[in-house]
Amino acid sequence: MPRASDPSTGPGPTDSTTExxxxxxxxxxxxxxxxxxxxxxxxxxxxxxxxxLGLPAAELIGRPAPFVPTAEWNGPSARHTDxxxxxxxxxxxxxxxxxxxxxxxYAVWFSDVTGARRQQERLAAxxxxxxxxxxxxxxxxxxxxxxxxIVLTTNIAAVQILAVDDPADxxxxxxxxxxxxxxxxxxxxxxxxxxGATVLFMExxxxxxxxxxxxxxxxxxxxxxxxxxxxIMDRPDWDDFVSLPMIVRGRTVGVINxxxxxxxxPCSSSLAFLEAMADHAAVxxxxxxxxSQTRSRAQEQERRRLARELHDSAVQQLFSMRMxxxxxxxxxxxxxxxxxxxxxxxxxxxxxxxxxxxxxRRLVFELxxxxxxxxxxxxAVRAHAASVGTRTGMAVRVRVSPDLDPDPGLDLQEDVYxxxxxxxxxxxxxxxxxxVDIRLARAHEGGLVVEIxxxxxxxxxxxxxxxxxxxxxxxxxxxxxxxxxxxxxxAGPRQAGGWTxxxxxxxAS
Length: 509
Known about the structure:
By secondary structure, the protein is an alpha+beta fold.
């Protein structure tokens, strides 16, 4: 075991028992082992220590160690970490245990945990990206976050996440990091493609396999066909290029392009991490597409419902008004018109117009119940409950928890309102109830809970008829609205009689 031979390098252990003990430990230790003097300088190191630190023993002896003990030392089993800059420019994370020796110095056992620490950071990055996919409803914000996680946790200088529906179509930038502000990147890339530049990430899309190209930057910067992108591509300091396809449900939805800093090889562990991030990005793109389709279906259902209600209410009443108006005119044209009949016809027209106006106002309110945020979710629910109560004679009560989040987001509020409205519509149409209770409260985990309970008959089934699935009563639409926000909706009979619809939604903190 190399040790100091010159007293000027610092005091070393003089007790032979201590030295024999240390040597015995060295023989069974596969990690780095060093002895420090009271000032924290190397006095003795084993061969593993010289390999980990990247310096021969002669250059380490007398040099300050990164393992200076502090007042927070908690015994020989306590583990600490510190960084070490090797002569070759490597920065490694050293995990160590330190213990005082009988001679007044310290013994240190240490190992290089850079790879394990980086892997932990990568796993944490994947978790954060997955959380972002689950909680964020902006695809660009989600994939920008994924791109930044890749840059922050690996030796990668820049990242692009591009979506493509057809290789012949224009690409879309969904996430970028490391290039600074580059709003016209796609336009410049298109100009390069028209000049005949070889775009290698198209190969990743075609083959659905990673494409790794060493020393790509010098080639691009020397090629005039890449001229429109030279300024942007020269911003980060990079050398190697890797492109990974994003595949979900057997379909390639885009690529992640990564630009490695000089001297960093695209090793297998790095590619495995990037593949995991590509999977999360692909899921985010697919989720956004599914949510868009769900919203389109919901909008189509809403248009059909409004058309149906317009036909059943305002259109029918306007038709009746027209017939009454014709009858009134005929009565007035007739010689010896009966004044009482004229008054009755005019009164019926007035009543029909008042009813039609009320229905039209209700439908306009439902088109945009939370217009410009002027009306809150609670106000909208209370207004609709009052309208239903007045129209049907039911007692509709609204109870609101005092700790309810006042502003969970306009789009989410509108979907909650539509669920409440649909549930009340089902009660009016099917339940033959006399009262309804609507409760809005904060869930135990911080989300939102909405309950609509009635005292009706539950399923509206004629005697001897088969029970119709509750999904035919608008539950499909309500469930889709709940699932759009990561929530769930349950409906069923309650023990006290009647029916309960329960909506549970997580809310972003």
